[in-house]
Amino acid sequence: MHENVRVDKWLWAVRLYKTRSQASEACKKGHVSIRDSTVKPSRMVYVGEIIKVRKTPITKSLKILALADKRMSAKLIVDFIEDITPLEEIELLEMQKNMRWISRDRGTGRPTKKDRRELDGFFET
Fold first, then answer.
1. Are 23 and 14 spatial neighbours (Cβ–Cβ below 8 Å)?
2. In which domain, by residue range, is 95 found?
3. What single-letter DSSP state applies at residue 29?
4. pLDDT tens digit string along 42-59?
5. Within 13 Å, how many C-alpha atoms sit on residue 93's CB side?
6. Which residues pair with residue 45 across a beta bridge?
């Protein structure tokens, strides 16, 4: 347990980002906020604070339960963060997962005639 930890280091330690530089970059781009204001990567975090992390398409709200500056296994994360993301955000994520089958991978070309008939049939019903 530590008294103060940088926000980028904490986000990396609790496995929200794969690398510390990704966590730092997210802070610089304004994807991380505390008390409704964006934070720099060097800002210290404290137990009890609520961090909002924007990961498209939702914004996760996380309450800090404990501080860590070393990366941990996924099993231990429940002791360090509490996910308090609003239900509307989670429903938005589920809706997007269900709609994913409609999108096509980039570079796969146009739909075939059969694909088009299946799509048209789906949207008519």
1. no
2. 5-124
3. T
4. 999 999 999 999 998 889
5. 12
6. 5
